[in-house]
Amino acid sequence: MSRYLTEVIGTFFVVFTIGLTVLDGTALAPLAIGSALMVMVYMGGHISGAHYNPAVSIAILIRGKMEARDLVPYVIAQLTGAVLASLAVYVITGSTFAPAPGADVGLVAVLLAEALFTFALSIVVLNVATSDATAGNSYYGLAIGFTVMVGAFAVGGVSGGAFNPAIGTGPILVDTLLGDGSMSNLWIYLVGPVLGGVAAAAVFDLQNSDAEEA
Predict the structure, then answer these.
(1) Distance between CA 148 and CA 26 in Å, rounded?
(2) 69 burial type by CB count under 10 A (0-12 exposed, 13-18 middle, 19+ buried)
């Protein structure tokens, strides 16, 4: 139970930070979001692994560092944290928020942006937080948080910069129910990130095949 609670808490504060900084129009919102993820990773890494992202959980499952029976509870916890955070933002600000593609950005570009930076996030997680070669390092949270920050700065205006099905689902669901949004973009934030996470797990195996053979 402590692992699932940690996933709820970590996901909550990442999404909560996203909502408040985006609605406020904070220029350095990606820095705040990456920092929120970093501190939450340090908070929960030793308890749950600090996934806070269904695509990352899928990558870690394929990597063999997660039990299959834990995947659904982890995803439920992550989605719960995202929904609660979106509701908290609404209570505080009176407004809803949701990731959305940039104006006049093509569908292929949006999916590619989400997939590539979820790949980057997942491959960083796998290498700094699940590899025996980097076990016990002190920089894993910084590396993970900075990856999301870089992605948000780089393609936030292209795809909305979710890189996380929970960050897509929670805000979009609350925006649809309490705001004037719709569910039409939700599939983008499921398909793109999941493809990125699966690809990262495959590439991680290729990266580390020589070490395993040795």
Answers:
(1) 16
(2) exposed
* 29 closest CA partner among 147, 118, 156, 114: 156
What is the domain partition of the chain in residue ranges? 2-213
Spell out a b/e string for 178-214, using b for 16 or more CB atoms within 10 Å of the CB, else e.
ebebeeebbebbbebbbbbbbbbbeebeeebeeeeee
Tokens of 137: 């390092």
- Side chain identity at residue 178, one-letter code: L
Using CA atoms, how far apart are residues 214 and 132, in angstroms rounded to an integer?
14
Within 10 Å of residue 130's Cβ, how many Cβ atoms? 18
Distance CA 200, CA 115 (A): 10
> What residue type is 151 in one-letter code?
G
Q: How many CA atoms lie within 13 A of 5 on its CB side?
A: 3
Give me the chain's average pLDDT, please.
Answer: 96
**Model pTM score:** 0.95
Residues 135-150: tens digit of each pLDDT? 999 999 999 999 999 9
Q: Class of the 2-213 domain?
A: mainly alpha
How long a stretch of residues is the chain? Answer: 214
